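Progress narrative, Year 2. Work on Phosphoserine aminotransferase from Corynebacterium kalidii advanced from sequence curation to structure prediction during this period.
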Amino acid sequence: MSDQFPTLPENLLPADGRFGCGPSKVRQDQIDAIVAGGRDIIGTSHRQPAVKNLVGSVREGLSTLFNLPEGYEIITSLGGATAFWDSASFGLVRNRSAHLTYGEFSGKFATVSKKAPWLDAPEVFASEPGTAPSPSQLDGVDADLVGWAHNETSTGAMVQVTRPATDALVAIDATSGAGGLPVDIAETDVYYFSPQKCFASDGGLWFAAFSPAALERVEEIAATDRYIPAFLDLKTAVDNSRKNQTYNTPAVSTLLMMDAQVKWMNANGGLDGMVARTSESSSILYSWAEARPEASPFVAEPSSRSLVVGTIDFDESVDADVIAKTLRANGVLDTEPYRKLGRNQLRIGMFPAIDPEDVRTLTAAIDHILDSGVAAR
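Result:
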């Protein structure tokens, strides 16, 4: 506790003070899963049944969670979504891609495509941060792959996942949305994500639901003379995933946490149950912001406001940085805004592992800070 910031009353402290937008809150049961399961498999060969069965359990659990359509497969490999963007530029984009961008992370795949010398320049449809573009902007686009982010982690805006009027593959970056936002996987060809957001695990892996068309594209490009680094080769990822393994050694502790979280999700209503939790949390946060004179949701259009990442602006009379620092001094962590956005705001993670009642308590704590005048300019 810092002497510079006031102590909050005990009843205004959430039961768990972790509200980060990635890495996000990890449930105690997941930590326990590392201890319990780790005795038998951490430090053993990832080519033997123990670890392969763990990978298989995660893949099976994700297939259930997302109610995968016939022919879709869960593929996994190392490196997180950052590596997946590079892999997609090598192994999914035939000649040209098109992208919707509306913040820091939704633009990263487009940037990779722009810099890839073996691809034609992509077409990019950009929207201002805090807004959400429409997938219909990609109707009829001259591209063989189109992509956007289900949820823009930097701004707290989300875009519906619906297939545009195009024959192109549809690739959705679902890193902060998968498991907490509604989705019909049949509307996509590749729905990819890292596990450190809704799945409350460590980073370093990527998972993706691949459609038959996407699996076909991987095989098609792999059969050409295009150079593809082995670590980024999607055919290698597909071949290994079908054996319930990864090309390189995975972090087994991450898989143990992921497996525990997926089982918890499926046992608590599946994806519908998780969306109910994030919908409750986000309704609490946005209703509070709309009622508080000094605050307002950064994303103006209600239907575009994320269920899993809430961004709240404050007017000039309030220093949001002081609010965040006061919260942090009291053990309520990671409410700071995305650094590059540069706004006077808070950013609140509302992933499934976060209890909606903790979000409610958080809003009461912010009320207390505002009413005390400590954050006044």
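The first strand starts at residue 73 and ends at 78. The radius of gyration is 21 Å.
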